[in-house]
Structure formats: structure tokens, C-alpha cells
Amino acid sequence: MPDESSALLSNAHESSTYGASQVVPQNEHSAAEQPLDGHEQNGNRDDGALEANLKPMPAMAPIIIPMAIGIFLAAMDGTIVVSSYAAIGSELKQLQNTSWIATGYMLTLTSFQPLYGKLSDIFGRKACLLFAYSVFALGCLFCGLARNMTELICARAFAGIGGGGMTTIVSIIMSDIVPLRSRGTWQGRIREKYMSKSAYHNIKGVLNIVFATGSATGAPLGGFLADSIGWRWAFLIQAPIAMLAILAVSFALKLPEAQASNFTARLRRVDFPGAFSLVLCVFFLLFGLDHGGNVSWSDRWTVGTLAGFVIFGIIFAAIELEYAREPFAPKRIIVNRSLIASYLVNFFGLASGLSMLFHVSLYLQAVKRKSASEAGLWLLWSIVGSLSGSLGGGLIMQATGKFYYVTLAAYLALLFGSGLILLMTGIITHSLVAVAIGLVVGSLGNGSGITTTLIALIANAGPEDQAIATAVSYLFRSLGSVVGLSVGSTLVQDTLKSSLRSKLEGRDIDDLIRRVRESLDYVDQLDPQTQLVVRAAYEDAVHVTLGFTAIMAAAAVVSAIFIVEKPLPPRSSGR
User: Which stretch is the leader sequence (predicted)?
Assistant: First the structure.
């Protein structure tokens, strides 16, 4: 999965981000300029409140370790389902609905991420982080105990509420300590006094290593568990790790308590109507696409839910543009021509990347008959490319001070990688080596592009809108991930049904199609000739979806053309 695990730029455009799902609190100022848990007096920062937190590297361990556990969990959870979802669907006989395992999680994560920024100001960073870890732990436990696909999807959606907070609150705390902007800010002066340059970069390096380790662990571990003791342990194993994080945060993480004053006024700042309308808007879109692909596009439920998507989309836009006091997506940010190109790149890039990852996994298992653990190992190439791209993009920008051509080249690489995978999965020939090369190149581009578009946003938004512009970019990324996976899965199911119907004959064809779409295990029970037909139908379906992936990558390239280059300030020699 793509991330921003590289060191970005120092000085005015420095970022503490380290993972794909992080969010900066959506206030008028950046997290670096917000008081930690309400410690602000007459517009001046309470230096003593955080002085203890800004020390050389060894003394930072009590802060870093509790949050590093959460980073590892979030990174691992992002890839652990990719290699095991086909095994999950086959066992529960709901293979056609497995996309909801991921989209259900991302739906709630997308909607709750922006809320945590405001809620942490009200209830405190530590309390919100403990809440997020607790909900995630319970969600993972419920996933492991799920008796059917409906219960599993609901449990994943519940876990997403915690997942959104795990990434967001950690990002906010790190922004409190390691600022997004250091020039002339309170944290910049504190960092100069209390944190050496080496300690600062060591912190980022530790978090980068933790995130990379979690991402690399997820896919092969999920596949191994699915092939050995069962897929349920891919979720159950995360619950005790989350409990360890809860204990570490409870006893080791020392942060100031939130002030209880003006509680009602602060609560009114949270855009609950916007969050609620966003959840319904995205849910109706996903449900309509899923129902249309699995049942019928003319079915009343499909038509009704797609109409609901349009209605709540309009309501969400009205709330954000006209009524919300502190909206997720303010008008001045959304309609800014210098920013919208980066948002669209984020949307199309993540739609392409996640759909590619999931459906390459399906190709490996349904067409090439690889086990879940083998599929997980092949997907490691994507993670290697993503992390290398993120690091490389940051280093190139550090050296050149430019981001336009780096971004354009990044998404051309994504387009090349997705196109190569499409051609090498049966259109020209079957070559897993070429597919692995496509995964590396495509993920290299996406990982680099996510880093460079973040800098493009920061450079074009200006200091006053830096945080909120970044937060909107995370919203577009999450929506791109959800929509890309949902549309890709719909195309797979629609094409699979029509291909099977055109290639198979017999009185029981409807029952056979239903059972083939429910479980890959059933395919192994068919006679050899029918197996070949079914696997060829899966290949056709994957080709259509990979074509969609390439189209999304091409849309990202076109969007990247319109990004506005802006010179980046030189790095300060002091840091």
C-alpha cells in the first residue's frame, strides 16, 4: 500500500506523516500550531506543558513506543486482508461479497478520521487514542468470531472507527512534537532547544521502519494464517497486540489532560452532519454498485440506493460548502484550481493502486491456483515498490526543490505498471515475473506520487490552509480507495457472470454460477474441463478490472499535468 514514509522536506514544508491513512486535524491552523489538549493561555503556548515531551531521542521512547505499536497495527491491517480475502469468501461461501471486508472498514475509517482531530481537542489526545485502540481491538475480536459474511463486514466497519483514530491521533501527537512547519513557530523554537537534528530524524526513521515492517508483515502473514490455522487468526492476532498498545499508552504515554472549559462550544465545532451525510453517501454508492453487479442493475434496490447516493452527495456538498462552521472540505479549498489537480491525482491514484493490489491477488488464486500464502509473498513486491517510491520521491524533492516532473513521472510509472500487469495476465502472455515487475513499478510510482502531491498541496495552499488542505487530500485518498475497490469488484462479478453464462451449458448452469462465485474451493471439485472454463472466466473478469485500473492510472496522469509547480524554499542549515 502507498505511504508517505519518506522524509519529506525540511523547513516550511516538513511533514511528520508516515502512513497512507494519516490525517492532520482539520482546524484553521496546522496541528503544529494547535495547543496540545487545550493548553493555551491568552494566545501563548504553555511551553511547560510539552517541554518534557521534546527531549533528545532516548527520552522520547515513552512517547514513541506506545504510538509505534499502533503504527505497526495500522500498517499490518492494511495488507493482511489482501492475500486472505479469497480464502475468507470461499469458507463463508460469499466470495462475491468479499470486497466489503475492505470497503466496510474503509467506509467508517474515511468518515471518522476527520472527526478525531476535533474530538482530541475536546477529550484529549490520550483519551481518544485509548478509545481508538479499544474499538479496534474489539472490532478485530468480533471479526475473528464472525459466523457469516454479514457479521464479518459489520465487525470490520466497527474496527474502522478505531482504525481511523489510531492513525489520526498518532499523527496529531507527532505533529505536536515534530511540527509540520518549524520556521517561526512555537514548536520550531522548542525543537531547536530540546531536540537535536539527529534525534528528530531518528524519530522519523524509527516510525518509517515500523510502518514498513507492518506493511511487509501483513500480506504474507494473512496468507500463511489462512492456509494453516485459519483466516480468523489474521484478525484475532491483532486484538492482543492492540491490548499491548492500550497498556503502553495507559502507563507510558504522558500527555497533558484536556481542559473541560467551553465543552459545548468545542463540541459544536465538530462537523457531525457532514460526517453522517458522507457515510450515507458513500454507503449508498457502494451498496448500489455491489447490488447491481451481483443482482441486477434494474433492480429497485440498485436504483434506489444509487439515487440515495446522489441525494446525500448533494446534501454533503451543501453542508460543506455553505453551512458547516468548520467543514471537512471548505469551499476555498475545494474550488482552488491549484489544489484540485492534486486531489484528483490522489483519488485516481489510490483507486488504481488498491484495485490493482486486490485483483492481482484474485488472479493469483483463482487463475494461477496459488495459495493464499503464496499470493501474499508475491504481493510483497508491491510493498517494496511503494516504500522505495515514497523514500525516493522525498529524496529527489529534497535535492531539486521541484515536485511537478517527479509527480508526472510517478503516475506515468503507475500507468506503465498497471498496463504491464494487464498485458502479462493473459492478454499477451502469462508471466508472473512480469506481473511482479508491474507491481514494483506501479507501486513505486504511486508511493512516490503520494509523497510529491502532499508537497504540492502544502506548497500551493500556503501556511494558513496547509493543514486543512492536507486533510482534504486524505479524504480524497480514502474515497478513491473505497470507490476503486468497489467498482473493480463490481466489474469482476458482472463480467464473471456473463462470461460463465456464455461459456457453460446445461440445465444447472445458474446453480453452478452461483456456487463458483461463492467459493474458489468449489472450483477444485469440478471436472477438469469445467475447471478450465471457470478459470478462463475469472481471467476475463480480472482483465476487465485491470483495464479499469489502467484507466484510473491514466486519469491520474492527466490530473498530474495540471498540478501547479511552485518553488520550494531552501532547507535551513540548522536542521
Answer: none
